[in-house]
Amino acid sequence: MFSGVNCETNIDECVNNTCQHGSTCQDRINAYDCLCAPGYKGDRCEIDIDECEVLPCLNGASCIDKVAAFECKCAPGYKGKTCSIEIDECAEYLPCQNGATCTDKIADYQCSCASQPDASNKLYSGKNCTVELTACNGNVACQNGATCIPYLKSEVPTIEQGFECKCTPGFTGELCTIATTFSFNGRSTSVTRTLSQTWNNTIKFRFRTTLPNVVLIMWSGNYFSTTIFAHIEIFKGFLYMGYIPYFSNFSITNTYQHIPIRVNDGQWHEIYLHQFNETDIAEKGEILLRVMSPQCPNNVCERRLEYLQLQITNPKNELYFGNTGSLTRKSQTKSQTIFKGCMQDMMVNNKIVKEDNNQHSIPIDLLPGCDRKPQCFVDTCSNRGDCEDMWDKFECICNRRYLGNRCQEGKGY
Ligand SMILES: [Ca+2]
Ligand SMILES: [Ca+2]
User: Fold this and answer.
1) Are residues 210 and 335 in the same domain?
2) Could you tell me if 280 and 342 lie in one domain?
3) Is 278 exposed, middle or buried (0-12, 13-18, 19+ CB in 10 A)?
4) Domain limits at 316?
5) Which residues surround ligand 2, an ion (CB under 5 A)?
6) pTM (2 decimals)?
7) Residue 174 within any structural domain of the chain
8) Closest CA to 344 of 365, 370, 319, 362
9) Which of 62, 145, 259, 346 has its CA 20 to 30 A from that of 167?
10) Residue 98 sits in the same domain as residue 190
11) 23-81, pLDDT tens digit by residue?
């Protein structure tokens, strides 16, 4: 608007302006503009711009709108103007003590306490590895050379400590007081009749013998639709795994895998058998045989026998340690001999064979312990005959001009 006689005066419309929020009024002809202060918009700058609308706060933070600004309230574990920085709690708080290593997590951290005792022979546990483990201090509960392993039962609200005994071979039980070593006399066995699953069975045991030809274990199974007996035996001192038909009139060619290491050296050897699940595509129904021996690369030898089932229904779900369970089956093995020697820690699906008769296993003719004496000495066989240790007796292989059980008699020609 203009005023004055000649309308020479431009009226200042800003005099009574309605610009809000500290905005500046700019006079125009018959109008005015509001020049908004930062953070406002609208004709009269009446609108407070929502700076949170563009979601500037990251990682789950909440946003507080302010004038020409925003403020982020970070979720736990984040920091920075927009909460873009994931806090390294390990570096920020140095929480893990006593030689522990720290792993950063979101709003958290994880300490892996030192697995070996420190210089003052102390072990620690707990969230920050600050709780000294004391359950094994002066603890004599673990028997027969077992190792006491302390652990933390709980840290909050109160510290509770516990321990476990790690038994030496030949013992089991919470405190390792139950002996699991047995002597086999050539008639002995332990029969397991409760192979509870068709697949995924695991069998473990340790043995020692000096005999070059003996059966170690035999169990019923299926090869496709044929019922068979799978077995592990020692033949000429080597380990063999194979199977034979259950019905003697069947004729399937015996299939064998063998591991060419000598296991009739009188030392303990450990056998591990695992039967894979049929649904494992790559390992369909295979049986894995593993033996631990310094004669093997990295102390482990492995062989696999394909598609064997341990059947629970057809016709008997039985497993024999050190025996074949029948004369017919014995005659079908390579060794054709019942085991003589010692076994320990015989386990089927984590159930261990003990002296007592139970649902799981029936020990027959097993003698506790392994009271073994070497049979061959320098002078056992006379006249440079070779002595063979047959575990509980000796056999002399005489030079051709001698005979007698010690090669003591000349043939006299
Ligand atoms: Ca705002
Ligand atoms: Ca973190």
Assistant:
1) yes
2) yes
3) middle
4) 181-368
5) 87, 89, 104
6) 0.74
7) no
8) 370
9) 259
10) no
11) 999 888 888 899 999 999 999 999 999 999 999 999 999 999 999 999 999 999 999 99
